[in-house]
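Board notes (copied after class):
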Amino acid sequence: MISYIIWNASPDLFTIPEIAGLGPFTVRWYGLLFASAFLIGQQIMIHIFKKESKPLEDIDTLTLYMVISTVIGARLGHFLFYEPEVLFSRPLEVILPPYAGLASHGAIIGILTGLWLYSRSRKATGQSFLWVTDRIVILVALAGTFIRFGNLMNSEIVGRPTDVPWAFVFMRNTEYLQIPRHPAQLYESISCLVLFFLLLWVWNRQKQSTPQGSLLGIFLVWVFTLRFLYEFLKENQVAFEDNLALNMGQVLSIPAVLLGIYFIWRSRRLPAQPASPSRL
């Protein structure tokens, strides 16, 4: 007997009725999860800053860099990798809502760029580029958990047809036939959650003695090796990928994995960043 899960969850959490001529406003699961990733991540970063005696007043600035670089990077990445014709013909769509397309590879490029800009003026406090990225990837892994679960609530980025007993039938996705499919969003969400706990455990054991670049390397290898493999279970996002041996997600994952291997190798050759003096 073939069993599967009927997935008919609404992407909307609740609706705020019209007030004083404004609204109504609908709060969606994806937006709430996206925002929660930043809010919870900020609290974790405060904990890390306290443990490693870094200036807490930098947290708000770091959060601002993360929000801006993530959104801009993800939007630019989506249009550059998947809809380049829109990027050049209607560039304002990158910054104007609704934000219907976000690319994780673009988000990573944006985050790394933003952290490089942030760290340039904070080397005196021990916040080098590699120190910051090694800590931020812990939060990015958690954000990946939330965002991919948001994709599940939206019934988007669906998997290919399958007869596994945990297959989902996405009733609200009218683009594809409503037949059992791999819940690829859930696979990636769970993988990111495992990575979050792994990175947090590694950091908690070593803290300021963490080899520079090691957590960044682990993150890149873990996320994009699995991304490469999961793409075999997912439907292509855009039509031109149907004619490619590897889809765009897989092509972009290869250099990310190689970069991760480089950072792991490099971290074994560099000393850990010296501990900052304790702050009273």
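Comment from the instructor: Residues 5-236+244-267 form one domain. The first strand starts at residue 5 and ends at 7.
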